[in-house]
């Protein structure tokens, strides 16, 4: 059984084709610059050279047609016919309060996703475009929505409510939702395996740190708090997003710069974070290299990001009361040893002891690793995330009628 996983962003389509029967990744890739010109596809098949082709994609429909063509035609194909695809799993960024788990897509689900797209105007519309385009190409197979927000729907009211007029919540859905749910789900389950415990026995702090970054407090296997909020702008310092700031700053700077709300939103989302602090970098590898060459702004950026991570660890430790492990994941979390070290320095009194040598040596390519000392009360893990694996397993479970939700479903990676 071959399953296609699709992740449609505002100007990209990421994909994976997976053979469930053989537990094998057949291909993965991305179509970049959809709708903005000079688009192209990068297609990777294990054991073969990477294929790249320039192909103009004015919309997501064209991009998904290109994905299917690339999977089924030419020397780079991995299947002979589109009919070999048994189901499609779609990433949907925002499900609002309507979805607490993955669901098979029908007209009512599409209407529900449309009804909350004002909460994620940069994400849900392209997600929907991808769903509709894939349904046109594959109208007879199941299509499943996997929501970034679903994992965090276990948060209690005191964790997700903001201290703003209550009517904003009632009328407009203003509350904390959280994102990166499939990543936090996957690494928390794997952390439980590494601890030799059941997920419901584990208290964890999971730290998804990439260009986008979010942290999650997991108590007895479920999310009880997370750093991203109504939108992915809140929380940690990110590649181009500011994260937590004084909410008066945007209003103050709009007046100083003479710009409108749309421009200010663009600045906070696309020109702030690490890019704003350094003036030129979003990739932490560039920042780390700059710091080595005594670039003061790179040094400041690293200090700010690591300090903010440390604060979240402390806050979530207080929320959980007992912490079994801290988990670093995603591109930066898996590879930036110095950021991990700076974030964990001085936390020995909390029972967090980092093994400096192990931490320096470990990268995401090394697989799952423990970077705390043997006598550390709180374990520190580096676990490469695998969101697509969650997509695939949810699709298979829904197709077979065995799916419940993440708190009950026996994922294969719980072994």
Topology of helices and strands:
Elements: E1 2-8, E2 12-19, E3 24-32, E4 40-44, E5 51-54, H1 60-72, E6 85-92, E7 103-104, H2 107-115, H3 124-137, E8 143-147, H4 157-160, H5 166-172, H6 181-195, E9 204-209, E10 213-219, E11 222-226, H7 248-257, H8 261-270, H9 273-278, H10 284-292, H11 296-320, E12 325-329, H12 330-335, H13 337-344, H14 356-361, E13 369-370, E14 379-382, H15 387-400
Parallel strand pairs: 1-6, 6-8, 9-12, 12-14
Antiparallel strand pairs: 1-2, 2-3, 3-4, 4-5, 7-8, 9-10, 10-11, 13-14
Helix pairs in contact: 1-3, 6-15, 10-11, 11-13
Which features does this protein show?
single chain; 415 residues; alpha/beta; Nucleotidyltransferase, domain 5; 2 domains; 8-stranded mixed β-sheet; 6-stranded mixed β-sheet; 14 strands; 19% strand; globular
């Amino acid at each position: 059984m071959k399953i296609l996983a699709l992740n449609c962003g505002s100007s990209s389509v990421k994909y994976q084709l997976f053979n469930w029967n053989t537990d094998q990744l057949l291909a993965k890739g991305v179509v970049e610059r959809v709708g903005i010109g000079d688009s192209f596809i990068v297609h990777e098949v294990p054991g073969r050279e990477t294929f790249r082709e320039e192909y103009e994609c004015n919309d997501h429909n064209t991009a998904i047609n290109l994905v299917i063509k690339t999977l089924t035609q030419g020397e780079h194909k991995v299947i002979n016919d589109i009919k070999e695809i048994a189901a499609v799993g779609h990433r949907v960024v925002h499900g609002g309060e309507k979805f607490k788990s993955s669901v098979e897509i029908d007209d009512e689900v599409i209407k529900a996703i449309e009804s909350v797209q004002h909460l994620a105007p940069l994400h849900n519309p392209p997600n929907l475009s991808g769903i509709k385009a894939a349904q046109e190409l594959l109208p007879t197979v199941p299509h499943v929505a996997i929501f970034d927000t679903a994992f965090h729907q276990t948060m209690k009211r005191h964790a997700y409510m903001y201290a703003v007029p209550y009517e904003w919540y009632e009328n407009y859905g203003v509350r904390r939702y959280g994102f990166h749910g499939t990543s936090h789900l996957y690494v928390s389950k794997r952390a439980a395996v590494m601890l030799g415990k059941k997920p419901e026995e584990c208290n964890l702090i999971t730290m998804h740190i990439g260009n986008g970054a979010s942290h999650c407090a997991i108590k007895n296997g479920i999310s009880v708090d997370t750093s991203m909020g109504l939108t992915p702008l809140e929380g940690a310092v990110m590649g181009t997003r500011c994260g937590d700031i004084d909410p008066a700053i945007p209003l103050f700077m709009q007046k100083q710069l003479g710009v409108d709300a749309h421009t200010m939103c663009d600045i906070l989302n696309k020109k702030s974070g690490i890019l704003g602090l350094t003036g030129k970098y979003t990739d932490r590898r560039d920042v780390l290299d700059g710091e080595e060459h005594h670039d003061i702004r790179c040094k400041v950026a690293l200090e700010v990001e690591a300090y903010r991570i440390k604060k979240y660890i402390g806050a979530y430790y207080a929320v959980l009361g007992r912490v079994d492990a801290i988990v670093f994941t995603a591109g930066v979390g898996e590879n930036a040893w110095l950021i991990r070290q700076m974030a964990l320095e001085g936390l020995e009194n909390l029972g967090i002891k980092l093994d400096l040598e192990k931490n320096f040596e470990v990268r995401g390519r090394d697989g799952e690793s423990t970077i705390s000392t043997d006598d550390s009360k709180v374990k520190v893990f580096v676990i490469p995330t695998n969101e697509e694996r969650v997509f695939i397993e949810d699709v298979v479970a829904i197709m077979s009628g065995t799916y419940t939700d993440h708190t009950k479903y026996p994922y294969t990676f719980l072994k």
